Structures are given as C-alpha cells and as structure tokens.
UniProtKB/TrEMBL annotation:
Taxonomic classification: Bacteria, Pseudomonadati, Rhodothermota, Rhodothermia, Rhodothermales
UniProt-annotated stretches for the region Disordered: 1-44
UniProt protein name: TonB, putative
Keywords associated with the record: Cell inner membrane, Cell membrane, Membrane, Protein transport, Transmembrane, Transmembrane helix, Transport
Pfam families for the chain: TonB_C
Membrane-related topology note: Single-pass membrane protein
SUPFAM superfamilies in alphabetical order: TolA/TonB C-terminal domain
Amino acid sequence: MLPREKVVEPPSVEFDPSLGLDATVDRSDGGTKRPDCGGRRALRGKTYYPPSALRAGLEGRVRVKFVVGKDGDIESPTIADGAGALLNRAALRAVRRLECTPGREQSRPVEAERTKTVVFALPEKMDGS
C-alpha cells in the first residue's frame, strides 16, 4: 500500500494585463529589469515581407539575436536560426527598426542580450483555391 500524498495548490498570482506579456517588474529594491522592445505586434509592424519571397512562396521563422544598448539602440543583430538569405535579411531589417527601452540593473541602464523570432507566413489565398 502506498502512503497518501497531500495535494498542495500553487499560490495564486495576480496578473496585470497592462504590463503586457514581455513586461517585467522593476523592483523598488533596485533589482533587474530586462529591456523592452515590444511584443510580437511591435515586431510584426516593423516586418516587411519581400515581394520576391512572396512570389517564390517562401515561408519560415528567423531567430535574431541582438544586444540592446544602454541607450536602447539595437546593436550587433545576428541570425541565430535562419530561413534563407532573403528572409534572413528582412528579419535583420525588422529587428534593427525596433524601438527598445534599455534593461536596468540597480536602477542603471545596462546592455542586455535578447532574441526575437520573426515569422514569415504566406497570406491565405483570396480566391479560396
């Protein structure tokens, strides 16, 4: 016979939707806050799908690694996982156009590494075929 196990419920956590999914809390004790470059919607608004990629039917996901500088500028974007030269260039262009707030440590701006995934998906066919 197995011993009885006690089921413990996890503590409840309040969710503040105004913070968004990429937000982190800046602790009053001078803790760490990662840089904010907006969510998927911000990246999607900066992404340009090359017409030649559309015509060729190219789709894919491109992971771009970059550094957010102390001033919020995007530095050293590189392809971590690509989907071909054409989409890789478009993903780098999109990430370079992001507007970021720098990370903070002990209430001071710091450089921080981030990774974003740019998704290129062909639009649905309009004629239903």
